[in-house]
Each structure stands twice: as C-alpha cells, then as structure tokens.
Design goal:
Radius of gyration of chain B: 23 Å
Radius of gyration of chain A: 26 Å
Shape of chain A: elongated
Structural class of chain A: alpha/beta
Order of helices and strands of chain B: HEEHEEEEEEEE
Largest sheet of chain B: 4 strands, antiparallel
Number of strands of chain B: 10
Oligomer: heterodimer
Distance between the termini of chain B: 64 Å
Shape of chain B: elongated
Largest interface: A-B, 45 and 31 residues
Number of helices of chain A: 21
Strand order of the largest sheet of chain B: 3-10-8-5
Distance between the termini of chain A: 62 Å
Chain lengths: 515, 114
C-alpha cells in the first residue's frame, strides 16, 4: 500500500468506529432529548481541544456469539482536552453501542484514562450513560467495575473527580460516581439506583417509576447523591465548566486565581440583608454574594439539606469554600443531612487547598426523635471532625446566633479557626436566652406570683448579659467584633495574612472519621 | 433578594430550646415519619411473600426466640420468631397463603413477668 492508500485506510477505519451504534440507535438516543457521547464531550471541552484515544479498541469476548459482534470503541469514548485552557481527562459511555454496557475492554479504556489523569495530575470527568454490566462478559465486567472503584478511591483527594449522569446508571455502576467529588444530574435524563423499579415490584410489590425512584430531582433533593442539578444537558455542561474554573488541577496546587472584582453592593447590600429580630429569617446567600468578588457564587447541593449553604466564590481573586447556616430553611439548624453535606465539602476544600470561610447563625441542632434515631450524633460528629482536621486557612464570622454545640461545631476558635470575627449582633452563649432562663431560673419562675412575667424578665436579663459577642471576646474566643460593612475588608486581610499558613497535622496513615 | 421572597414563600416556624424561629420547612422535614412505640406482640410481614410451615396454633405458650412460622420471600425461608413471652392469641394466616407487606400474621397475648 502507498502512503496515500494507508491514509485512506485509516480514514475508512476511523469512519467505521466513529459511526458508533449506527443511525437507528443514534436517532433513538436523540429522540430522548439526549446528545450522543462524542457530542457531549465536544460540547463540554474547549473547541478543537479534544484528542481521542483507544478509538480502535475492541472487545475480546467469545461467549454467546459475542465474537461475531463489532462494538465501535467498545461503547466508551476516552481522551484528553481542555476547559478554559485547563487540562482534563475525560471518558463518556456511548449508549448507542450495546447500551453503553460495561465489558472488560470498555472498563480497560476507562481505567487507562484514569491512570493517565493520576500520572498527569489533572481532573477526571466521567460521563455515565450505561445499561450496566455487559452480562455476556460475566465476571470480567464485574472485575471492570472493581478496577474503576479502586482507582476512584486512590485518586480521591489527589485529583478532582467529576461524574456526569446522562442516562441510566444502575446497580454496581452507581458506586463510581458515589466515590467521586461532584455528581451532576439532568432532569428527566439521569437515573440512578441500586435495584430498579422492576425488582422492587417483584420483591416488595411496590410500584414506582424510574423517575420517582432515582431521577435527577430525587438525588438532588432527597438522597443528596447529586451535587448539581440542571434542566438540560447544555445547562449541565455550563455548570461543569464553572466548577472547573473554581477548583485546582490537583492537590499540590491552588486554584488558578482570577482578577479581583468588587461585589455588586447595590444588589447585595450587607446592611439591608439582616432583619432586626434575630428570630426572623433571611437568605444567607445574599450575605455570601455581598462579600465575594463580582457577587458570583457557585452553590453546591443547592436543593438538598437547604438549612446549610455550601459552595465556591472568590475573594480578592482567590477561590474560597463557603459554609453558612441558612436561617431561611429550618432556621439554619444542624441535622443529619446538613452535617453530612457540610463535612464532605469541608474535606474537599481542605484536600484541594481551598481556604474556608464560615458564616455562623444557628439556634443549635434540630430536635426530634427521627433525628436522634437517624444518628444525628455520628453525623453531627462529621462536622467537628472535618473542621478540626482541615488545615487550610479557616476564617469564621458569627453574624447572629451561635448557641451551644452549634457554636463549637461551626469552625469555632476551639476547632482551630485562624480568625474568628463577630458582628455586634452576635449572640454567643451556651444556649438561647429562653432555654437558658427556663433552666437557670426555674425555681424563681415557678415560685413567682406571675410566673410568665418573671420568665420574661429573666429572659430579658439573660439576653442583656449574655446574648452578645463580648463574653466570648473577653476570653479571646473572638478576635475582633466588627461592623457588618467591614466584613469584606476583614476577610480579604485575614486571607492574605493566612497565605503562608503552615500547620502540620500529626503523622498518621489516615484518620477514622465517623462516616 | 430575601426581602422580596418573603411575600411569596409560606413561612412556618420551628422551636429550638424554647425559642420559636420563623423559617421555611423543607419537604423531607415535613414528610418525616412520626415515631410510634412498636407493639412487639403483633407480628406483621416485613416483606411480601408466601407462608410456609406454621409451628404454633392458638392458645400455645411461646417464649422469646421461639420459631412461629416460615415466611418465604426473596428466595429465602425466613424464620419468624417470637419477640415476647406469652400465649398465641390468634394466627391470622394459614400455610400457603400469599401475604402482602405489613399484613398481620400472628397476635400474641403478652405475659408480663416480674
């Protein structure tokens, strides 16, 4: 063959492989409002940046007439590219090829690109759209999943791992996304569950649709498995790009800084966010936007455990992880879900050198039998663990209520916050005035002629004496009591001062957090 | 901004340490199951299945851990054991019956020993 002929031969081979599952399967995929795998990669990465590898990989299965079947790329596309110029490794399962089912070589392609991401120390993005294990390949497909899970775990905390669920992801397959740092879902497209509606119907006699069992909304609102929810694939890709811009490439670097920008103070006026009554709610996201660059805030797990807000913003160009109690929902209490949500985020930020800014305003833990029985003790402990373990710069601001265990948990001085600030409106006390007065002055209240009047008087006394930041400040638990309007300036300064923070954690193999 | 939202959002309240806070309840909180004390003397099917062998009949004395019946479900022969001491008050099923989840199987009249 001449060079020209060889070149034509390559083109022919490529054309065949690039056809994927063929016209019919592609049309079916598109009619479901879904893009096909290669289109997804191209939509997500910078134009012309995608370089595909292992296009000519084929399966080697023999049983069940598999040797007569050609599956282009073995149902998965892998390669490298860039997002805003940042390098990433990527794989996308191709549902049009044998339902995106995971066979031995399919898994090999995925683990190969994962190994590459680890060697090159760049983020890994996995687009999941698969019917599950390729049953014809038997135990080899199980081996494939196991090899992926192992690599997800080894890579955890070394490179950021992003999972995008753009189709079914069922059975054992769900555990790869669950091991990664961020899971993206899209309404009506993403479906995740361990056992599907059919099995549930047979075994339990309960009827439920895929959407109700493990659709995007369920994972975004109920289970907390998903971190980002979108209405369309395009919106999902925009979210991923934004996230990538906020996080570093690996755990030895810091996130790439942006140009400093002032917050939109006209829209987010710090003086107008807070109601005068400490029992009235407000949206703490307005406070976050009021202090960070360009008032741009990327909220994580926006729809789940809304009583705590977590997400990324920038202060003076540097990426910051924000954690804030949200009085707008459930009065901002800590509970099973909100503890879980905050703790994992804190550990992500710590692993990837992202300073933590915590805004405190909570009445305590959520009372309830359901909470106690669901293990609020061990889940609540995760927050203490995560904050105590984190050695990135930790800045805490107490805006209003910081009572009891909630005060300690929310990155207090005692968990080694580097700077703790409080507004004059802060109330730092062992518990709220009502509860404290009822206990301390129980006898006086009971014996009074007018118990209710006495109760109110004692509450008032307690409030005046203890519901302020000055008792804690007198012990040095608060570094400075600041005016709300000074908040951004104090944050900028304390973050600059913390640039060179070097806190050596005790040497250990790893801790044993209360998972 | 928060100010505008207040007009459209239905606020509720929660109480922590004797103080009431105005806030929005989340769906999961509103849908939480109310706790009820479990009555150990009433045995219901925890899973749908078929009744296999029944070892006891009305009037039998039973003690904690004693085999009462077999519930065949999920390809397993599940032994259903007594969780209280007492006398069988009523057996609500017979061998071969198909039962649904939560269906009443056996009632025991609990013997309180001191």
């Amino acid at each position: 063959m001449s060079l020209k002929q060889k070149s034509l031969d390559l083109k022919k081979r490529m054309r065949e492989a690039l056809e994927g599952g063929g016209t019919q399967a592609i049309e079916k995929q598109k009619s479901g409002g879904k893009l096909i795998a290669r289109e997804r990669i191209l939509a997500l990465l910078d134009p012309k940046s995608f370089h595909e590898y292992d296009l000519f990989v084929e399966h080697a299965a023999k049983d069940f007439d598999m040797d007569k079947k050609y599956l282009p790329g073995d149902g998965v596309i892998t390669g490298t590219g860039t997002i805003f110029g940042y390098p990433v490794c990527i794989f996308a399962q191709d549902f049009t090829v044998a339902g995106g089912s995971l066979g031995y070589m399919h898994a090999k392609k995925i683990t190969k690109i994962m190994d590459h991401a680890m060697r090159m120390q760049v983020p890994l993005i996995g687009i999941n759209d698969s019917g599950g294990a390729r049953i014809q390949e038997g135990v080899n497909s199980l081996a494939g999943y196991g090899e992926i899970f192992y690599r997800n775990t080894q890579a955890s905390g070394v490179i950021p791992q992003i999972s995008v669920i753009l189709g079914p992801c069922a059975g054992g397959a769900v555990y790869s996304p669950a091991l990664t740092d961020f899971v993206f879902v899209v309404d009506k497209i993403s479906k995740m569950f361990i056992t599907g509606p059919e099995v549930i119907k047979t075994v339990l006699g309960e009827e439920i649709s895929m959407e109700e069992l493990g659709g995007a909304k369920i994972h975004a609102e109920i289970t907390g498995n998903a971190h980002f929810y979108a209405e369309s694939e395009q919106e999902c890709f925009e979210q991923i790009k934004k996230l990538v811009s906020y996080i570093p490439w690996n755990n030895t670097r810091k996130a790439v800084p942006f140009l400093k920008k002032e917050p939109k103070t006209k829209q987010y006026n710090i003086d107008k966010i807070f109601p005068s009554n400490p029992k009235e709610p407000y949206d703490v996201r307005d406070l976050i936007r009021a202090v960070n660059d360009d008032s741009d805030f990327l909220e994580v797990q926006e729809r789940w455990a809304r009583n705590i807000v977590i997400g990324f913003g920038r202060i003076n160009g540097e990426t910051i992880g924000f954690v804030a109690n949200q009085p707008l929902y459930l009065a901002g209490v800590l509970d099973v879900d909100s503890s879980d949500k905050a703790a994992r985020f804190i550990r992500f930020c710590d692993a990837f050198n992202i300073p933590l800014v915590t805004f405190v305003d909570l009445p305590g833990y959520l009372p309830g039998i359901d909470q106690e029985h669901a293990g609020v003790i061990r889940h609540g402990a995760k927050v203490l663990y995560a904050y105590s373990e984190a050695n990135v710069p930790k800045i805490t601001l107490i805006t209003r209520k910081a009572y009891g265990g909630g005060y300690i948990a929310m990155c207090s001085r005692h968990l080694k916050a580097d700077f703790v600030f409080a507004w004059p409106t802060a109330e730092i006390a062992v518990m709220g005035p009502e509860g404290a007065a009822n206990i301390i002055f129980r006898k006086e209240i009971m014996e009074a002629e007018d118990p209710e009047k006495m109760r109110q008087q004692k509450i008032k006394e307690y409030k005046e004496k203890f519901a302020n930041p000055y008792v804690a400040a007198a012990y040095g638990y608060i570094d400075a009591v600041i005016e709300p309007i000074e908040t951004r300036e104090f944050l900028i300064h304390s973050l600059e001062i913390s640039q060179g923070k070097a806190e050596i954690s005790p040497k250990k193999k790893h801790g044993i957090p209360p998972f | 901004m928060a100010r505008k939202k207040e007009e459209v959002i239905p606020f509720s309240s929660i109480t922590v340490d004797d103080a009431q806070y105005k806030t929005i309840l989340i769906k999961k909180y509103e849908n939480r199951k109310k706790w009820t004390k479990k009555d150990e003397s009433i045995l219901s099917a925890i899973i749908p299945g078929t009744i296999g062998k029944i070892y006891v009949s009305e009037g039998d004395d039973v003690s904690v851990g004693q085999k009462l019946l077999v519930l065949e479900a999920m390809k397993m022969l599940n032994q259903i054991l007594a969780s209280v001491n007492g006398k069988i008050k009523k057996v609500h099923v017979k061998e071969g019956d198909r039962v649904t989840k939560e269906q009443l199987l056996i009632e025991i009249e609990e013997k309180i020993t001191k």
